[in-house]
Design goal:
Elements (H helix, E strand, L loop, with lengths): L5 H14 L6 H12 L4 H11 L3 H10 L11 E6 L2 H5 L2 H12 L5 E2 L5 E6 L11 E3 L2 E3 L2 H4 L1 H15 L2
Parallel strand pairs: 1-3
Antiparallel strand pairs: 1-4, 2-3, 4-5
Helix pairs in contact: 1-2, 1-3, 2-3, 3-4, 6-8
The structure holds FE2/S2 (inorganic) cluster.
The site of FE2/S2 (inorganic) cluster (FES) has 12 residues, from helix 5.
Length: about 160
Amino acid sequence: MEKLSPSALTEIDTIVAKHRNQPGPVIEMLHEVQNSLGYIPFEAMEKIAEAAGTSPAQVYGVVTFYAQFTTQPKGKHVINVCLGTACYVNGSQKLADLLAEKTGAGINETSRDGLFSLDATRCLGACGLAPVCIIDGKVYGNALVSGNAIRRIEEIRAQEADHG
Ligand code: FES
């Protein structure tokens, strides 16, 4: 496990201190840590558990129950690839594999360089464009045939290389 930065630890301490001795604060503290750091590190779960008088295991249970919480840092660029039925029959698994290869991020993981997170999702409501993925909030339809999503990844890589 990577060590947290001092600023992240201070942020967690501030959030926990604000909610200490208040009723039912676990979810609120988790939301604030998630919003502030982009994920919930294990250290935060320990501190939240201590403040709420519960165990880290119970807090962990809450974190894993709600889809909006994540225990891994997200990449700078977030990709959602749809593995819903319409996309699946139109090759979304191949699209997901290509995106994984180009980004260096496994499915539901973040690349080692921290640039990309690749998350599998259910139907995005754009089945007519299957297979579909979303990169940084923008929809890329017919992504396998058109190659648009892969081109976007290459563009991002080039931009990031320029900005050093
Ligand atoms: S199944 Fe992918 S958008 Fe509906």
